[in-house]
Amino acid sequence: MRPYNGVRSYRMFVRMKLAQPLRAAALLTAVALLPATTAGFAQVEGRASPEFAALFATYQRIKASYVEPVEDEVLIRGAIDGMLAALDPHSAYLDGAALERLEAMIDGNYQGLGISVQMEDGAVKVVSPFKGSPADAAGIKAGDYITHLDGKLIYGLELDEAVRQMRGPAGTAITLSIFRPGRDEPFEVSVTRGLIELEPVTHELADGGIGVISVNEFSRDVGVDVSTALTELRGEAGGRLNGLVLDLRRNPGGSLDEAVALSDLFLDHGQIVSQRGRTRRDSIFYEAESIYPGDVAAGVPMIVLIDVGSASASEIVAGALQDQRRALVMGERSFGKGSVQTLLPLTRDAALKLTTARYYTPSGRSVQEGGIEPDIRVPQLSDPDAARRQQYALRESDLRRHLVNEVDLEDEALEADRAPDPRFSATAEELAAQGIEDFQLDYALKTLRRTGSAIVAARR
Question: Is residue 298, in this structure, part of any structural domain at all?
């Protein structure tokens, strides 16, 4: 079963779950033991640990003594969720409804607000609004906390239930109460739900013959889409590009295969990424030239933009192009998710999304916790709230029970990118007066226009 950096596509899962791989069958057996009778459990107890006996004893006590009758389904689901929550923030049990939401997210076609959220200490925290989504247009920012929906408190609600309430028919409105770190008072935002048809790849030609390709998510065919975008940009530029910006900001990740394909577009030698798990089958090395021959943009100076919303597959691409000296990485330190999740079928309508490996950049770096550090740190000065929100930015290292980086990173190293840089002192108001809406992109474009050929030489 080939792991993905995000999760397997749901359609692939549907085809695979009928095969019932041995690993999945073993997991299914372990789960099925939980509601067994006392006599049946006694047969297992000799092969199980004392902790397993404690689990079953707790189950029996609850069934016999809780103030109200409790269904087995509630207790077993709670036990499963508890086991997975004890591992890391990304492992989870997915039943039919959750798998349907997964399919919708992978296809990028659903009705709602268009935001990626994470539960943090009972609160719904925005990881990133998708570019061009209703939430993005309404000004929702990464790091915002959503406290109420239409005036109803959602603190302590299950994440799935909060997401369900935020979704709804396109054209209907919902009022979100937002607490934004750095602001003194919460505020309300009305968002009109829309049909979320995410474009994984968008592109435009900037002045000076510089192409800008934004990769918004790593869904199916991202490598092909970027290759097509390059061809179209060359046509618009009269046959030759003078520079290229690959924008991976606010990209939460997705398919490992697509991250490898995108990296391979721009690399003609060496390793792209490696993943290493407990078993030999979980340890895989991905090399350049395995999908696309040569560098499709050979000789074109290149900058990769990242920020705190760049996670997982985005970090694989940024790390590969940085380590192989193919591109200059610019922006802010990335999220720091250096683990691989695999979807393991349990039954026809349930599966485990389980962390099975860590991934490493070509130089052997694990981005877990620390993320990708840009070659040139460029703050987003055009966002008036960016500096204050950066102090409270959510990263992998902030999540409970996150995997620890084996290098044992010091907290000071993780906080280093929050120190002010005297080179970047313009205010959002001053930039707006100059017509600059996106300072990071503007800085990257100016850098390419000014020193494009020097970047190519320096990265060789």
Answer: yes
Domain hosting 426: range is 201-458
What does the block give as tokens for 14? 């549907």
Residues in the chain: 460
Residue where a domain terminates, one of 134, 164, 197: 197
Q: Are residues 236 and 189 in the same domain?
A: no
Pair 192, 134: CB distance under 8 Å? yes
Residue 452 lies in a domain: yes
Q: Is 218 found in the same domain as 143? A: no
Question: What's the structural domain count of the chain?
Answer: 2
Q: Which two tokens stand for residue 112?
A: 């709602």
Q: Which residues pair with 207 in a beta bridge?
A: none
Q: What is the DSSP letter of 398?
A: G
Q: What is the pLDDT of residues 156-170, one digit of tens each?
A: 887 778 888 888 888
Domain assignment of residue 16, yes or no: no
pLDDT grade, residue 213 (50/70/90)?
Answer: very high
Closest Cα partner for 310 from 218, 211, 385, 379?
218
pLDDT, tens digit (0-9, with 9 covering 90-100), for 3-62: 444 433 333 333 333 333 323 322 222 222 233 333 444 444 445 577 788 888 999 999
Residues 131 and 219 in one domain: no
**Residue 321 within any structural domain of the chain:** yes
- Look at residue 410 and tell me whether its pLDDT is greater than 70: no
Phi, psi of 358 (to 5 degrees): -105, 155
* Radius of gyration for the chain, computed over Cα atoms and rounded to the nearest angstrom: 23
Q: What is the 3-state secondary structure (H, E, C) of 246-306?
A: EECCCCCCECHHHHHHHHHHCCCCCEEEEEEECCHHHCEEEECCCCCCCCCCCCCCEEEEE
Six token digits for residue 166 = 């935020």
| Eight-state DSSP code of residue 43 | H
Query: 163, 197, 231 — which closes off a domain?
Result: 197
CATH of the domain at 136: 2.30.42.10
- What's the distance, CA 292 to chain centroid? 25
Sign of CA dihedral 168, 173, 176, 180: positive
The catalytic residue positions are 312, 323, 337
